[in-house]
Each structure stands twice: as structure tokens, then as C-alpha cells.
Design goal:
The protein is α/β, with parallel strands linked by helices. Helices cover 41% and strands 13% of the residues. Strands 9-8-10-11-13-12-17 form a seven-stranded mixed β-sheet, sandwiched between helices. A five-stranded parallel β-sheet has the order 1-2-3-7-6, with helices on both faces. Helix 2 crosses helix 4 and helix 2 (50-76) packs antiparallel against helix 11. The model is unreliable at 1-5 (pLDDT under 50). Bound molecules: thiamine diphosphate and magnesium ion. Magnesium ion is lined by residues 201-203, 236, 238-239.
Amino acid sequence: MSSPETAVNRFNRAAIVDRNFVTLLENRQESPRARRDPDEVLEEAGGLSGNDLIELFESQIIARHQDLASRQMRARGTGFYTIGSTGHEGNALLGRFTRPTDLAFLHYRSGAFLAERARQVPGQDFIRDTMLSFAASADDPISGGRHKVWGSVPMHVPPQTSTIASHLPKAVGAALALRRAKRLGLAATIPDDGIVVCSFGDASVNHAVAQTAFNAAGWATHQQIPVPLLLVCEDNGIGISVPSPPGWVEASMRNRPGILYFAADGLDLVAGAAVVREAIETCRHRRRPVFLHLKVVRLLGHAGSDPETEYHTWEQIEAAEAKDPLLTTARRVVDLGLMTPAKILDVYEAVRRRVQEAVVHAESAPKLTSAARILEPLAPCRPDAVHAEAARVVPREERLRVFGEESRLPERAAPKHMAALINAGLADLLIKYPESMIFGEDVAKKGGVYYVTAGLHAKFGPARVFNTLLDETTILGMGIGAAHLGLLPIPEIQYLAYYHNAEDQVRGEACSLQFFSNAQYRNPMVLRINSWGYQKGFGGHFHNDNSIAALRDVPGLVIATPARGDDAVRMMRTCLALAKVDGRVIAFLEPIALYMMKDLHEEKDGRWQFSYPPPGEHIPLGEGRVYEEDARDLTILTFANGLHMSLRAARTLAERHGVRARVVDLRWLNPLNETLILDQAKATGRVLVVDEGRRTGGVAEAILAVIHERLGGEVRARRLNSLDTYIPLGAAANLVIPQVDDVVREALNVAER
Ligand SMILES: Cc1ncc(C[n+]2csc(CCOP(=O)(O)OP(=O)(O)O)c2C)c(N)n1
Ligand SMILES: [Mg+2]
């Protein structure tokens, strides 16, 4: 392969790019200049010394040989990932000029960046680690063989999924959280003048999620809030097969409010160095978002499997290959008198050998061989530690400082409705967790649309309770990014319907992080969402959303939904403990219709108001509550509004029909407590699931499946769901969501009365 005479299949561009490099050097004359002292600073290279340039070159060569190896491994069936960094090796400059402590959320073409960063962090074996990840070996130090991701704890690089642009909102969130963490007095995870680096491709600039991140960064800067965020667009002019319109990235980004624009040559280290350095230093010292537009070229197609000849001519492919940044660095290094062509070839071949040795090692390294091992980091669960954490109470004085005198502690007050109890519960959690913060739309002065967070802004100040801009993707990204800096986010999404337009931040990002980092990174979060229907005809679909399908299938996500205020407080304490101890992400679905509910059976009976549970009391994950436990005729399994309805239905069933129903509030919808479900089903042999979620995608499907699988014909089980429709305004709403009468009717059916 290294000989120019060797005939190379012209479809094998990897071999051709490899050969081009070797040929260039075999034919290159030594520089007529005297040899330069490598310690000398090269004014023309932004202050890099000759030695710096030689090291950067080696990082580029490492990235190149890794890409070449990935394709050989794939051909042998031992490697499973071929998206490469070839042509993007100019990003080595970023690895050089950023600090290894600058948190970096990286594009998938970051081989040279990381090779360069690895040089600055003791104990790294970057080549071995990369080969292990190509081979999906369980020894891959970042993902444990779950995916090829760029990531490393010692290098401060959390792994990214391959969803285009979805890492940008959390990069904004992390940049914003730097100052907040400091204001809250948290131990710094990165130095005070640290920055957050985030890279992505040119086509990705157009993605809604990227646009929203640019907007959020500008929105904060517009208010003089520091946003030390380096946004690096590695512009190779194409996204898979679709060219970016020439000039579009610059036209779109040059004049964004709040964002400073820099354009650098990413094909030539010498030409690009000064601007890259300046962009980074500007970001670091001015604490402003910087958009660094790095011009690169994509070689070897989008990935190994990409038939580039379908959309590029041979001439276009060759023209791109002529711009190979490694050829440019080689010419520079020779012309500057830093290395002879022969020396460069020695280095090139030595790196090839190192990579090949790492390939041999990786190919025989252990793989993931059990489902249990794969799942291990997905939903960590240490119930004893969670229990201890949820039970932990803070010294009384800390509470008195916030609530005032003893008599004003919430547990001393008369029973209250859910909104008031959650409000006090949140205050106690803000006291207990000084690193926690509540944020979302309208949560600050207004106290949320339902006043659940009323007064918290005044009590805890704007560093702990604050409004965000109106964008759910940004809200969730802020939570994820803040958690990376040790904060404990409690974001609020105003209505379940509006979770859906940002759900990828939970599905693709928050819940995937422990999985893809083998539990080395975590972004704990308790996400409060105003949820469910029964708004007495007001609000229509968007304020009565009852679709939880998109939550139920997110791996590892905990779903909690209380039906009464005291439960809400106790459950929320467990949720914070789950986040704190196990790094979990929790969706806490608060039933809007029950926020202000005071009564159960009759007007003014006050039976849906409850006393505030003293700190430390909590409800363990999965624990339900059984009402009317001595009832033997049937079991109603339900939650949230369904509990309130079912208790009323149970009274009618008993009084008018002589049917005694026990009613089970599941409280936790994911994971489901199968033991509870089965025990309660067996207790009566007849089950009605009252699920205000939709017939398709609601939780009843899963409950019936569990009962059917495990108890088969032993139990007669039916379900009552909302219909598969959007919810209309007015009284018509009640035609599509279960009512008390429906519960009674279906219960009688199941009971065969
Ligand atoms: C949200 C999303 N949509 C589609 C894809 C499939 N996809 C992967 S890479 C890519 C093109 C990205 O182009 P660009 O941002 O320019 O990066 P490049 O690969 O050129 O470096 C697409 C469409 C994806 N990963 N994520
Ligand atoms: Mg591109």
C-alpha cells in the first residue's frame, strides 16, 4: 500500500488518501532552508513553536491512521464504526488551544482534537481506547462497548449521541451554569475561567435544536449574562450528500445577536492557528459566546458505507483529496525546515504500527456478552442509599431561616390542597439541596401558571428560582448542562403537551448519558410537568394532554404521578434522592386538576386536603397505596385523577350495588411495580384498570400484559381509558376521558353484576 506503484482500486479512497501522503513525501525534496530550531516561535503560525507544530502534526496523523484502521476492521468484520475525522484534522488546533479542563461536547469527527487533548492529560492511551471503541469492546473506557462515542472523563469530554445538534442546548446550559455554580458556592468542577466547547457540522447549523441553542446563547448575552461557550462549526460544505449553499453558514451566523463570529482555515494549521487561538481566548476572557467557523474538507465520504460516487464526480472527489490537510501540514513542516520528508514518513509509519498494534489488541478484547451487563448503567438503583437520602433531614435552624418561626413550619399548618403542599415541599427541597434550582416558564415571580412555585423566587432568590426563555428544548438542555457542573436541576415544563416538542432532550440526551458513558457521567434531573386532563372543559387538548407514550418508552426514565398533596411531597423527596444518589432522570407528572382539589365525595367535605408530611417522610420508588384493602369483589388499579374518580365510584358501587372494590393508587408508572399489581389482582381475581391516559400508549396496556402473562385466565381484567383523540373544549371533553359513571359501569361489568 505504501508504494506508489501498487495498483489501488479507485473505489478504495482510504487507500488512495493514504498513498497520496506517502507519495508526496517520497517525492518531496528537503527544504533548502537551514534546519529551524524547533523551539523557535513561528510568527506566521499564531505563536506556535516548531515543536508545537510537530506535535499537532502527529495528532493529525494519529487521527488519520485511526480512520484507515476503522475501515480495515470493518472489512474484517471486527469494527463497527467508520464515520471518520479525515479532512477535519485541523481541529487538532482546538485540542491544543483549549484546556483539557474546558468541558467539551464534540462532533463525531473529533479524532485529531482528542489526540491533541490526550497529549495534555497524563495517563492517556488514546489510540488503544479508540480501537477498543471501534471494536465495541467491553474494555472501551468510555462506553464499555455500547457505542463508538468520543468521550473521556479525565479529558472532560462527555460522550455525545449521533443525533445532530442535540448536544448544543446542554452546552449552552453548561456555559450558563458555570457562573451559577460559583454563585451557589459549589466546588468547581472546572476552573473559574473555564469555557465550554461544542462542535458540530455545517448542515447541523440548520437544525431547529442548533438554532434554538444559538438563540438561547444570544438571549442570555443580550442581558449581560456571561456565556463562555465556544461553538465550533466544522464546515466541510456538505451533510451526507447534500451540499450546504456556499456562504450560507457565514451569512446565517456572522451577525447573530450576542454571538461573536470568527472564521478560520481548518485545512492549514499555520494559517488557522492565530484565529483559532484568538477565538478561544476571546471566549475565555470576554465570557461571550463565540462562533468559530472552521473551514475543513470531508474525505472518504460520510462514512465507510457511503457510496460517494453517487453524488460526486471523480474530479470532485480528487479535488477534495488534493486539499487533504495532512498534505498541507507535511509541506509546511518540510518547508519550515522542521522535519525532513524521510522523518515525516518515519513518524507516519510508526503511528501506523502503533495503531495496528492497538487493532490487534482490540480485536481480541472482550465484548459485551450479557444483556444484564448492557443494561447495568441504564437505570442504576440503590434503594437503600436512596431511602437513606430521602429520609435525611436538615438541621431545624435551616428550615426556620426560610419558613420563619416554628409555628410557620408547613407541618404545623392545617391540611391543604396539593398545590400548596408541593409548594412547601419544593421549599424544603431547596433548603435540603443547596445545589438545586427551579426554573422554567413563569415559575419565578408569577409562581407558575398554577402558583405551585409561588413565593419561592422571593424566598430563595434568582440564582435558585428563575424564569427561562420560552423554549422547552432550552429548558431541558439547561438542566442537563447544569447537572454536568454539579447542580441539581428541577425544571418545570408548562403542560405535558409542550414536553413533546422537546422530548428528544430527555430521550436522546438526558436518559442516554449514563448508558453511553457506562455510568461515568450522569445528568440527574427532576422534571416537573403540569399534566393530565379534567380541566372542566377549559383548555382543550393542549392543557389536558394525557399522552404519556413518549415518556413510557424512554429507557431508564422514572415516571411518578401523585394523586394527593401529601403523596406528592413524599414522592418528590424520593425523586430528588433518586437523582442525587443514582443520577436518575425523573418525570414528575403533577395532575393539574388535582392541584386545587379540596373535596372528595361532597362539596366542602375537605377530604382531599392533607397535612404536610414532616421532612424525612417519603414514599419509596414503586410503592403504591391500597384503599379499602378489605374489599374482595374487585380491584381497581389506577393513579392521579383516576384515583379520585375511582374512590368516588367505589362508594357508589358499595352503596348502590353492594359491590366492594379495593382501589390501588400505583403512584409510579415507570418502572411499574409488578408485584403490587399481581398481588392486588390475585386478591380479588377481578381487575379494572382506570387509566386516564390514552387507550394506545397509556399505561393500562402494560398492566394488562403483566396480568395476562403472569396470571392468565385466573384473573378477569379490563381497562377503561381515554379515547385515542385530542381532547376538545367544553363539556365535549368529558365524552372522551373516563368519568365516574364510566368507572362504575365498567366495574360492574368486571364484577359481573
Ligand atoms: C436529528 C438527526 N437527523 C438526521 C441525522 C442523520 N445524519 C447523520 S450525519 C448527517 C449530516 C450532518 O452533516 P454536517 O452537520 O454537515 O456534519 P458532517 O457529517 O458533514 O461533519 C445526517 C443528516 C442525524 N444524525 N440526526
Ligand atoms: Mg458537513
